[in-house]
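Dear support,

We are seeing what looks like truncated structure output for some complexes. This example has two components. We would appreciate it if you could run it in full and send us the complete token output so we can diff it against ours.
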Amino acid sequence: MSAIYGLMAEFASADKLVEAARRAREAGHEWVEAYSPFPIEGIAEAVGFPGSRVPLATLIGGLAGGAGGFFLQWYAAVIDYPLNIGGRPTNSWPAFVPVTFEMTVLFAALSAVVAMFVANGLPKLRHPVFNAPEFEHSTRNRFFLCLRADAPRFEEKQARHFLERLESMKVFEVPL
Amino acid sequence: MSATPLIRGRWGYASITDKIADIVLHRPTHWMWAAGLIVTLMMSVFFFGAMGYLFTVGVGIWGVNIPVAWGFAIGNFVWWIGIGHAGTFISAFLLLLRQKWRNSINRFAEAMTLFAAGIAGLWPILHLGRPWFAYWLVPYPSVMNYWPQWRSPLVWDFFAISTYLIVSLLFWYVGLVPDLATLRDRATTRAKQMVYGFFALGWRGEARHWARYETAYLLLAGLAAPLVISVHSIVSLDFALGNTPGYHSTIFPPYFVAGALYSGFAMVLTLAIPMRHFFGLEDFITKRHLDNAAKIMLATGLIVAYGYIAEVFTAFYSQDEYEIAMTLNRFFGPYAFVYWGVIACNVVIPQVLWFRGVRRNVLALFALSLVIQLGMWSERFMIVVSSLSRDFLPSSWGLFVPTFWDVSMLVASIGFFFFLFLCFIRVLPAITIFEMRELKHEELEGKEP
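Here is the complete output from our reference environment:
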């Protein structure tokens, strides 16, 4: 048996993909992947996605950016280069608000995007799913369900049998 | 309103994809596009040549001098950054408000934002007497042992504009990734597959990826929404924190933000109307989209009108003789024609938008969008120039008269903007393909789009 990444089934609609993913998980299949040309409501839950930590990364990034932005101004204006302007306080924090705000937004946004790509394992220009010629329609109008071959209890025959019983258009192997 | 669908006609996932992707991948070059590209390329070359001349000779080639040291350059800066506000507003606010009609206009509006904000960022540097010291705005432990003045709105502005550019670029790029993957898979030449594939980062549309993607996109929208408001507010503080009559006004931040959206939506229409016509996108950018954009123009235009009224009222209510003199100078002074032009273009003429017939008349909207942009540019000129020309001491009054270089550089910057836009529509999908598929899916599900 040649090494495969998994078995894939092709669907024509989003609803069929969600239904198939849900049934695959119910049937005890682990490591189910679903590919779609646009985000589908409920598909993440159907494949057993526990929820992302992108929001946490964004919060941390934003707080760090804001704190860093304020510290930068405070350090420059109070410690390193204090200017006596008519005896006004050097730590004139209300004037530091705009830059603090902008730095908060900048670092929160950067963290959100970086966290999203890192957690998704992107960029990854080469991936086994691209080996299947059918897969190029995943960015056009087709929906794919993939049962990974490296899942602990994967049985190719049984998996193929399961996928063929779904309302799929085609079942095929994804070579490694 | 909901009776008009957001996608007109019988389109499916595949045909939507092919239609939008083929504009980039397969459509033969039209002579009008090529002609437009050549003309705007020449204007761009002139723009950069004029910059070279400016850097060689100095700002004396413009009409600026004391007392009017802020002339066209600063007016242009505020105008361009204002135009650059609609894109992120459409992407962020309308996403958060679940206005599905944004999906077919957000991509090119974001591109417009990037180009406009980029051009805007050039002007403050161009107008510096010593532009080679522009980097002094950047805080870094310099050997000269100085830091930027954190209490200056000009430093805030530097932070606001750079943050805005970076976040808008991120927002735009993140939105593009799934569509770049579509182009990668549909491209027929090796070079296109490689380039689009590289920038698509290997996107494969896995369910977990989409989930994180949507979360990140929503977070970006939530962050970009207050950012849009903050950027033009900070731009307005460049003026409002100065004590010059005509600058020193607390109405400025909201009034500038509304003005920015006003001119930005006008530019969206200026770009959308020819684009939907020439590329046959009437089914995706429907009259309902134009109608909605027109309504936003009407609403923001009324806020701008309120700003004008508030300024006049405040001047007389305060009984401050300088404020009153400034207001009367705007009404009857040497730049009175600018003031009344602003009132005509921004307040009087756009009231025709109350009529549904006008909002659904493509040509009328196009003409109106140009009128509003002229009006908004004139408003920036009025604020920047007429306020400086008459400050407190009559002995230091003086007029600003634009020179050839003032006018030609403004026109050339517009040419450069359209050059970038013309390149964009043939290189990247002007409409977000995956969101159009999603819209189609929701339509099939029978959900209210």
